[in-house]
């Protein structure tokens, strides 16, 4: 019995000694600085004169989908035909779907084509909906630094399924030459590319608004 007590006491002391040594070792390890990230916002603003409204209806900007690998917050660089690299130190202030969705809604709203343009979180029943698909959103560094943005817009009407709800589908791609290969230059280039795409689409959207099919119940 006494031998068992001595053995247990020795074992406990050994465990305590090991814990103490591990604690001292952990304290002596050099502290690594936290990973610092830089946030970038792509949010083009429309400054041109607004249109005269062509409809009394309002438009809802619905879902915005972003194709992988561009859907995350990290800036994406294309370094080869099949090679893409994410920059975890330079990230967007919001995920691209939210960023581009908000920019699109504000742009169309400032264009004044519809009576109002609301976001997806709005609870009003949508007569007309604009959905957005982002196919490309990256920096291309294979030859010279370029910002690449490709967006497809789908304008639909809610009509109870009686006819094809699609009013129009339009796709645009812009490549903007960058002054250098810095993350700042890429964010500026992407903002310019998205602004030019929205400027082109608003003209098409204004044309659609002049001849909208009747929505459900009208």
Radius of gyration: 27 Å
Major pleated sheet = 8 strands, mixed
Share of helix, binned: 25-40%
Q: How many strands in all?
A: 8
Structural class: alpha/beta
Regions with little confidence, pLDDT below 50 for 5+ residues: 1-6, 19-30
Task: Please write the string of helix (H) and strand (E) elements.
Answer: HEEEEHEEEEH
Taken as a percent bin, the fraction of beta residues is 25-35%
Give the helix tally. Answer: 3
What is the straight-line distance between the termini? 94 Å
Global shape: elongated
Can you give a write-up of this model?
The protein has 218 residues and is an alpha/beta fold. 32% of the residues lie in helices and 29% in strands. The protein contains three helices and eight strands. It has helices spanning 2-28, 96-111, 183-209; strands at 38-40, 59-66, 74-78, 84-92, 117-118, 128-140, 146-157, 166-177. Strands 1, 2, 3, 4, 5, 6, 7 and 8 form an eight-stranded mixed β-sheet that branches. A hairpin with a 5-residue loop joins strand 6 and strand 7 (146-157). The longest helix is centred in the first third of the chain and has 27 residues, at 2-28. The N and C termini lie far apart (94 Å).
What tags apply to this protein structure?
disordered N terminus; alpha/beta; 32% helix; 218 residues
Short overview:
The chain is an alpha/beta fold. The chain has helices at residues 2-28, 96-111, 183-209; strands at 38-40, 59-66, 74-78, 84-92, 117-118, 128-140, 146-157, 166-177. Helix content is 32%, strand content 29%.
Helix and strand arrangement:
Blueprint: H1 2-28, E1 38-40, E2 59-66, E3 74-78, E4 84-92, H2 96-111, E5 117-118, E6 128-140, E7 146-157, E8 166-177, H3 183-209
Parallel strand pairs: 1-4, 2-5, 2-6, 3-6
Antiparallel strand pairs: 3-4, 6-7, 7-8
